């Protein structure tokens, strides 16, 4: 019985450890997200990351090689969650969630990626290396948007006189404008009807 | 006769001087535009501004109190010229001109404001004082866009089921997305059809 118990223990150990590692990784990502959003990339010091995650720098950098890797993992995590919302509800709903996001650094479920997204936009403008590292990671949002639109077209909900690639690029351009608009601190109270117009302009022809 | 001649001279002198001042001011604005676009606000040193304008720092700062004032005058000048294009051809044409703009720091007539616009966007994100100084200057583009749309509506070319304010905010949001897109160095070759879609979505209903 003891050898069987040991074998069982051996089989379980890696799984328990993996669960533990995943949970710790999640704790770091969730804690550092608000830290990056509040202080920006440069302002998110190791000290602040320790406070935000409740973990020591040793624990944090056991899971992520350096701050850059942590930020990229966070951006990738957010892009994946955005892609999930896109797949379920479409990119326009992602934008509506951004509008509903409080501007005070706190976050609401489903829309707490604005801070990360702003940092990604800023670093894409200023950092060529980052641009290359990000390029492959940003494709999943485009792919999710395109898949969603194709599905909507097959269901007869989408206009069929414009290529899905063009509609995807259109929605991504509006998202970029919205992120920039919010980043500049411009009022967003009146943008709900604008998003209605955006949504309607990719739908099946009016009057047909 | 001499007193009459003196009177005439007195009347002409201010006008001649004003022409000269205007020309010199124009020379400084045109020279510094490419300098700001190429090096960014911080990188546009006084030395570089001297080289770009062909004038001494004494001459430059005789016309503009400091670099901030020069940049704001430039941004205002560009916004005025954008507003002129908007009044004549609409905001979508302004965006098409941005797409035709070479990315190498040179400029083409009618679309050489991208560099300034990028700097404005960046400083709006990072500089609260600048945000306040810019607010009043940015209104002329909104006003020109709104006037143009109202004119199009009166001419029966515009959709009439969406408020002109919403259409204005929509076009400005897309412009902001385009500026951000170009600033991030993303490919713009495929955005022509996207702007066709934007233009069509503010026009009179299809099928009616």
Automatic annotation (TrEMBL), chains A, B:
InterPro entries: DNA-bd_HTH_TetR-type_CS, Homeodomain-like_sf, HTH_TetR, Tet_transcr_reg_TetR-rel_C_sf
Domain HTH tetR-type, first and last residues per copy: 22-82
Keyword tags: DNA-binding, Transcription, Transcription regulation
DNA-binding region range list: 45-64
GO MF assignments: DNA binding
PANTHER family: HTH-TYPE TRANSCRIPTIONAL REPRESSOR NEMR (PTHR47506:SF6), TRANSCRIPTIONAL REGULATORY PROTEIN (PTHR47506)
Protein known as: Transcriptional regulator, TetR family
Organism: Saccharopolyspora erythraea (strain ATCC 11635 / DSM 40517 / JCM 4748 / NBRC 13426 / NCIMB 8594 / NRRL 2338)
